Amino acid sequence: MDNITTDICIVGAGPVGLFAVFEAGLLKMRCHVVDALPAVGGQLSEIYPKKPIYDIPGFPEVLAGDLVKNLEQQIAPFHPTFTLGERVEDLEKQEDGSFIVRTVEGTEIACKVVVIAGGLGSFEPRKPAIERLEKYEKKGVEYMVRDPEVFRDKRVVLAGGGDSALDWTIYLAGLCKELTLVHRGTSFRGAPESAAKVVSMAEEGQIKLILKSNVSEVQGEEALEAVTVMVDNKEPYRIDTDYFIPLFGLVPKLGPIENWGLELDKNAIVVNTEDYSTNIPGVYAIGDINTYPGKLKLILCGFHESALMAQSAYNIIYPDKKFVLKYTTVNGIQELQ
Fold first, then answer.
1. 206 vs 170, 203, 209, CA distance in Å?
2. The whole model's pTM is what?
3. What is the pairing mode between strands 237-240 and 226-231?
4. Is the model's pLDDT at 37 over the cut of 80?
5. Is 144 found in the same domain as 97?
């Protein structure tokens, strides 16, 4: 059992949690970061490290994994500490207003402020109702793309109509021997630009696009060999394939956080947009795990929330000091450490 003392305990080592370390570090607040995953980066590292991201200011395009590496480099001067591969289980408020955060492995983090940056919380892929689908998991059936190189020169069938399905169709088209996108509708839920590009690629013969359809069956001996596609409730037909990747999103679950006495709205934590504080003084929630009127689940919004959170947390960590906003362009990182 480890016993750690810090100023701020950040629950979640995704991009927003990492940037919160930077914002806290500028104000000379120490951070300890806890995450159930064995490495930092959250979904960016676990689900799509090779996926390009286009809405980070200053980066016309950056791979998700590279963004994580940049964030690690950015926070390195502030020497954060980490507990990885351990899920946070319990939050106990002390008489003096501080907290003890405990993990399932028995690690205890004593802190004055808790910042929940858990993204979607605990999550698992939403699986289609296809008989025997589980039989082929890791044997041709995947629910996310971790390494695109796995699919080089392979026959791949993707299913879905959201951003993830569209983005991976565009990205994998140049890698796969054959690529088919199956979508149950005639329009897409993802970005219009991505949808238009996928349609154009289909018209040019780069991919095969099957609309008003769904995969109804999977076949194979030891590993996946083919899928059956039902088109507009007509006669089904077989597509020989090496991989089937249904991309129907993730099912978020708050896990133990649900029992901490926080005000919740469905699977999200309600916050005050003045500083992204929760109904428990000293506990903040930033990133995709929070909710408020007008909430946008974007990384850049989580970055903004991190900055306002840190300014508010400063008053808890240093109640007798006057807060002075510091600009890195004036002082530089080394001087602000």
1. 10, 8, 10
2. 0.66
3. antiparallel
4. no
5. no
